[in-house]
Each structure stands twice: as C-alpha cells, then as structure tokens.
Design brief:
Layout lengths: L14 H4 L12 H26 L12 E7 L14 H14 L3 E6 L5 H9 L8 E7 L2 E4 L2 E4 L5 E4 L2 E6 L4 H9 L5 E7 L22
Parallel strand pairs: 1-2, 1-3, 3-8
Antiparallel strand pairs: 4-5, 6-7
C-alpha cells in the first residue's frame, strides 16, 4: 500500500512571543535576540579600541600600563516610562564590561537602570577626568532611537511627550550632545562604545568607527 504524508505545518511562536514590539518602540529586535548579539558587538568594539591604543603606544609592557584610564559604563534595562519596552541584559553587559576593564587596570564607574538619568550621565561624563594625558571610555548599553531623522540614545528617564504622541520627547541624548560632553573632558584619548539600536547615527565625522554589521538577519 502506498502511503502519502501531508507536510507538517511550520510551527509558529505564540502570539505573545511574536508581538515583542509595541507601537513606537525604539528597537526592532526581540530582547532574547538582542542580548548575546549586543554583547558580542560591544566586546568586539572594545577589543578593536584596545588594539588602536596598543598600536599608538607601541605595545606597552604590562608593568608600564598607565593608571590614568577612566571608564564610565551605562546600562539601562528597566526604563521609567511605561511606553518604552524594557530590555534583557544591559545591566549584565555593564557588569561584564566592568570586570573586564578592572582586570586591565581601568578605574570604572557604573550607572545602571534608575541611576542612569540624563543628568547623571552628563555629570558622570564631565567628571571622568581632570588629566590631559588620560584615556577615557564611555560605554552605553540600552535603547537607541531615530525620530525626525535625528539619532538618540535613551537614558533611564527618557520619555515621549505623551503616551499617544511620539513626535516629542524629553531627555534623549543626541550625537552632538554626547560629542560636546566628551570634548569638554580633559583627556588625550576618548573612546565611545554604543551597544544600542541605531548607534551608527553616532559614527559621524573623523575618528569614529562603526563596528555594527550591515545585515542583522
């Protein structure tokens, strides 16, 4: 007897899992896909930055590594606004990065979740260094967004003008603002690593390197 088999229908994720993005939500990937990929990109970018510094200092011996290296690590998983989707791993990303940098002699400051307000980030960047020969690093893990052609990273207290109006916002950090904050800090080398959606909008001008891939599929 000849048997025929109907093709097995492709399984689909439950509707609750498929609907991971609310209207107007900043990021376009579900949280479970963001975390490992984002951390890999961040570590790759950090390794690239270390490589640049190593080439500039002609492969400094471990005993002569400078002590005036200061890092500010910012991670926002839980946002204050209910209209912004929370993420999965930014606070863990910050903890992993802090451990890695501390092992290599960096002085590390962290701002996580409710600590990472707009004013707190601005103040922490301003206080990173008072040494013209220092190396400073700012790392951000959290939401990024584009509105009206402008790119933003979103601190903890970012919010839209209202729940039904995403055309206005409060407390978004733009490339020009962040560049101005970093430029005002006394330092010889300034490193910026953004582990967020639309971070390519910050890679403008001389000295910036976009480490994000062109294809996220």
């Amino acid at each position: 007897m000849r048997r025929t088999f109907a093709p097995k229908p492709a399984s689909r994720a439950p509707r609750a899992q498929r609907k991971f993005r609310a209207a107007g939500a900043p990021c376009a990937l579900p949280p479970e896909r963001q975390a490992p990929r984002r951390l890999r990109f961040a570590l790759s970018a950090l390794a690239f930055a270390f490589g640049l510094l190593s080439s500039c200092t002609n492969f400094i011996r471990p005993e002569s590594i400078p002590s005036n290296r200061y890092a500010l690590l910012v991670g926002v998983r839980d946002y204050q606004s209910q209209s912004i989707n929370d993420l999965t791993n930014p606070d863990k990303d910050v903890a992993d990065m802090a451990a890695l940098l501390a092992q290599r002699g960096w002085s590390v400051q962290t701002l996580v979740n409710s600590q990472a307000t707009y004013e707190a980030v601005e103040g922490a960047v301003a206080g990173l260094s008072a040494d013209d020969s220092a190396t400073i690093l700012v790392y951000f893990s959290g939401h990024g967004h584009v509105m009206d052609g402008n790119t933003y990273i979103l601190p903890y207290d970012f919010r839209y003008g209202s729940y039904y109006d995403s055309s206005t916002y409060v407390n978004g950090i733009t490339p020009s603002q962040l560049s101005s904050w970093l430029g005002a800090v006394p330092a010889r080398h300034r490193l910026l690593i953004l582990d967020s959606c639309y971070s390519g909008g910050f890679s403008q001008g001389e000295g910036f390197v976009d480490m994000s891939p062109g294809d996220y599929s």
